[in-house]
Fold:
Amino acid sequence: MPKKGRKAAALSEEERLLLMQQKMLAEEEQSKKKEDMLTQFLKDKLAKEEHNSALNMNKINLQWRTVLREVKARELRKDIEILSQTFERVVDCKDSVIQSLARDLCEAEAQYTHALCSHLHNIDQLLQLQWCRLRYLDEDYNTELEALKKEFETERRMIIEHHDKESCYLRDVLLALEQNFSESEYEAKLDFQSTRDDVKNKNLEEKHYLRVQLEGTVEELWKRFQQALKNYTEATEDRKIAFEALKLKDEKSSKEIEMQMKKLQKIQDSIGILKGKIMAHMREAEEQNRHVHEEKEVVLKQLQKLKSQMNQARTKARSNLAKLTLESSTALKKLSGVLEKAELILRLAEMCRKLETEEEKVLPFYTSLLSREEQEKVEQVSLEKPGEQLAQLMQDYLGLEHFWQRYNKVKLEQLSLEREKAVLHQENQKLRLLLKQYLDGISVSDEVLSRLNPLLIVSHKPRAPGPAGKAHRKRLLHNVVEAAHEVPHIL
Structure:
């Protein structure tokens, strides 16, 4: 009974401990739940506060923006009133300036439109010429490109065919080499086996012969030895001991001879094997050298062929490059000539522009002097399709009509100036003759005395020139007195 009471008390203590632990766990769980609830409540409250603070901040910003907008609107209205007044004053000034400039602009625009039309017409004609030139160049380039492509394709096809032929040839050569090598290898193996069997048989025969010979010699020596032994035993005991020693030496020498024979046999076997190997290697080396020599000759032929092809290609490329350089140099020279001509034209145009009068600057193209009927006829003729080739070519240069007008105008002025120059030259010659006559009359010389002088006194009646048939008659003599001798007497 007391044992059972003690067990019940012990169990009760364990149960108490378990109960206490369960209570502690329950309290910890409750405390954790309360802490979780508090943290969740605080998080919700913090989120609500942040939301409310964001809303209040947005409301404050909105109200503050409305206040700032009103203040800024008042300031902007005042600035706009001031700017509108100043703008009206400036606009009035600008209107007056614009009106004056508009009048000048209308006058300049009329001149500009007239010049622009002619300039655009000329540019269109030049563009058409340039496009035609580019089209011809493009066609030439395309034809040359097609020709080069065809040449390249033909060369490529020929190279591929040659490569295929060479590869087929090399494959055939390789197959033939393999067959020859297999046959030579089989023959070498057969030769090696036959030589090995012959060497073995020879070695066996030599060994048997040596063995028989050695046995015979040994028997003879044994008999002699026995006889000598008897003689020796009969003669002295000392020689017997010496004989025993010599016998031991003989045994040793016989053993050494056998060892040497074995070594000789092995050496002979190895010599035979090595000789067979050397012969086989020599044959293989000769075959390989022959094949390598043949391959070398084939490769050298191919190399020479490729070198010749490369040299031909290089010469062709060099010729093409030289041709290209010559053509490019000629093109550059022509372009430089065209550029120099254009620069010269521009310089002449600038020089002519400086020499133009105010009337030519304002009206560069003079008005036609033809009547209306003549102008209508000219227009009708220009609208008709030309029949001759020269007239068709002239249609391509209609844009240069104004240029030719100005050129013709300058040419007419040049001709008029040349005529005026000729007239002035004639007048100058006449004045020179009169001046020379005057100077000749003032001066006295043999040349002057030999010719008629207006200042000399002539004492004969003027006579009319006779007919041409009486020119052979004698001239009448006249008394002539120089004026220089008479002047002092008169004064």
In short: Helices lie at 2-235, 238-355, 358-362, 372-383, 389-395, 401-442, 446-450, 483-490. Residues 1-10, 455-487 have pLDDT under 50 and may be disordered. Strands lie at 457-458, 480-481. The chain is about 90% helix and 0% strand.
